[in-house]
């Protein structure tokens, strides 16, 4: 019987990050969603490596592998696509439908 100990931080925190990446990809109308798919692949590979390491007798801390893999893959994709300077416009109902400094991204001016 295989018992895998996956903690909430190993699922929920990367899940929230992946949901934000999916939102970022869809906000720009990308049909392939490169940030979401490649980061999901990196997360799955690191989770599989972590499970196999725990089966081998090691006691790895999964969050040490998962967070750098997810953040690193998103940074790698952004660097390869030249999108570090991009920021989404705040055109949501919370901002009154207007682009401007009322959203979260006013902290990082272009």
Care to describe what's here?
The chain has 110 residues and is mostly helical. Helix content is 56%, strand content 0%. The protein contains three helices and no strands. The chain has helices spanning 8-27, 34-55, 62-81. The protein is elongated. The relative contact order is 0.12.
Count of helical regions: 3
Judged by helices, strands and strand pairing, the structural class is mainly alpha
Shape verdict = elongated
The total count of strands amounts to 0
Largest sheet: none
Give me the strand/helix succession.
HHH
Write out key terms for the chains shown:
110 residues, mainly alpha, elongated, disordered C terminus
Explain briefly what this protein structure is.
The chain has 110 residues and is mostly helical. It is built from three helices and no strands.
Question: What's the helix and strand layout?
Answer:
Layout: H1 8-27, H2 34-55, H3 62-81
Helix pairs in contact: 1-2, 1-3, 2-3
């Amino acid at each position: 019987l295989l018992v895998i100990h996956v903690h909430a931080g190993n699922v929920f925190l990367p899940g929230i990050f992946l949901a934000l990446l999916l939102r970022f990809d869809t906000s720009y109308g990308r049909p392939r969603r490169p940030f979401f798919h490649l980061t999901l692949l990196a997360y799955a590979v690191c989770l599989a490596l972590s499970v196999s390491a725990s089966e081998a007798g090691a006691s790895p801390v999964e969050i040490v592998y998962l967070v750098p893999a997810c953040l690193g893959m998103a940074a790698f994709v952004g660097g390869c696509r030249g999108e570090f300077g991009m920021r989404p416009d705040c055109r949501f109902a919370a901002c009154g439908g207007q682009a401007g400094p009322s959203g979260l991204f006013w902290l990082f001016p272009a």
